[in-house]
Amino acid sequence: VIYRHSSLFAGESESRSLHLGIDVFVPTGTPLYAPLNGTVHSFRDNAEQGDYGPTIIIRHELDGVLFYTLYGHLSRESMASLRVGQNFASGDRLAEIGATKINGGWPPHVHFEIITDMLGRVGDFFGVAPLSRREYFANLCPDPNLILQIPGL
């Protein structure tokens, strides 16, 4: 039901309602730190109502495994000095949480998602999928708590 406020989630035969990441709700301006070493893959202000707003995607490689992490609903200032290929070390300040008026119309939070294959996409990726494609997206977007390690999830 939460996704009905935006046409982004409507589909011809099935609406998208399967959330692929974890949303962590914190106040506007809260700093966000890189959980792992990585390199900026892409970034974009996905400014449509209901979308991510400012979004950063980081490329990681651990033990020969390539994957990406997506951070959505950020501040525009977070992207001001970014460049593709820029390196971040674990613990480096990556961004800050954006205000509702610029983050796609959502309460302040970060959408955190792991992605195994960007499918050629740049600056954006599916954050919500159709329920009928659950298995496909479970393989493409593993449980974000593998990295976040939030107790009880």
What percent of the residues sit in helical stretches (DSSP H or I)?
under 10%
Overall, the morphology is globular
By DSSP (H or I, 4+ residues per run), the number of helices equals 2
Main beta sheet: strand number and arrangement? 6 strands, antiparallel
Query: What is the overall pLDDT average?
Result: 89
Secondary-structure element order, N to C: EEEEEEEEEEHH
What is the strand tally?
10
Strand order of the largest sheet: 2-9-6-5-4-7
Strand content: 35-45%
What is the end-to-end distance? Answer: 22 Å
Structure notes:
The two termini are 22 Å apart. 7% of the residues lie in helices and 35% in strands. A hairpin with a 6-residue loop joins strand 4 (38-46) and strand 5 (53-62). With 153 residues, the protein is mainly β. It is globular and about 35 Å long. The strands form three sheets. A six-stranded antiparallel beta sheet has the order 2-9-6-5-4-7, with no helix packed on it. It has helices spanning 134-140, 145-148; strands spanning 16-19, 22-25, 31-33, 38-46, 53-62, 65-72, 87-88, 93-96, 109-115, 128-130. The chain contains two helices and ten strands.
Would you kindly provide a brief summary of this structure?
It contains two helices and ten strands. With 153 residues, the protein is mostly beta strands. β4 and β5 (53-62) form a beta hairpin.
Write the layout of secondary structure elements.
Layout: E1 16-19, E2 22-25, E3 31-33, E4 38-46, E5 53-62, E6 65-72, E7 87-88, E8 93-96, E9 109-115, E10 128-130, H1 134-140, H2 145-148
Antiparallel strand pairs: 1-10, 2-9, 3-8, 4-5, 4-7, 5-6, 6-9
